[in-house]
Amino acid sequence: MLEPRVVPSDDPVGEDGEPDGERERGDAGEYSLLGEEEARSIVVGREEVMNSQFVIEKGIPIPEKKDSPYPFMEMEVGDSFSVTVATAAEDARFRSKVNKKRENRKFICRKVGEGQLRVWRIA
């Protein structure tokens, strides 16, 4: 991605008293004016970079979904399982997996010990 740059300008206002070109924000937060042609070339340059980074392909099959290491889909109402988590980040990540929608099935997660979570299927 191209970084915005400051273009020095001695005369930021055109002959008609209106600003010339588009404003571009520089690293220091100040703005300077770009000429219309230069502003257009920057935009075109970004599009060229973006378009050259990706190749559009047809007929590529979608891979099968990976199976979850957790037994959510095999559980019946009232079943539960326990998971050990080492960090708060792992705890949050796992809880977000529990809260994911799964074909009219509902689960609840509770902390049951230090670094230990338990998941119950409730519906």
Would you summarize the structure shown here?
Helices cover 24% and strands 21% of the residues. The chain has helices at 36-53, 88-98; strands at 22-25, 31-34, 80-84, 107-113, 116-121.
β-strand percent reads 15-25%
**Structure class:** alpha+beta
- Summarize the amount of helix as a percent range: 10-25%
Compute the CA-based radius of gyration: 28 Å
In total, how many domains does the architecture comprise?
Answer: 2
Order of helices and strands: EEHEHEE
Poorly predicted ranges (pLDDT <50, ≥5 residues)? none
Instruction: Characterize the biggest β-sheet.
Output: 3 strands, antiparallel
* Helix segment tally: 2
The end-to-end distance, rounded to whole angstroms, is 48 Å
Shape: extended
In terms of topology, how is this protein built?
Elements: E1 22-25, E2 31-34, H1 36-53, E3 80-84, H2 88-98, E4 107-113, E5 116-121
Antiparallel strand pairs: 1-2, 3-5, 4-5
Model description:
With about 120 residues, the chain is an alpha+beta fold. It folds into two domains: about 60 residues, no CATH class; about 50 residues, no CATH class. The strands form two sheets. It has a three-stranded antiparallel β-sheet with strand order 3-5-4, covered by helices on one side. A two-stranded antiparallel sheet has the order 1-2. The mean pLDDT is about 75.
Features:
123 residues, 2 domains, three-stranded antiparallel β-sheet, two-stranded antiparallel sheet, 2 helices, 5 strands
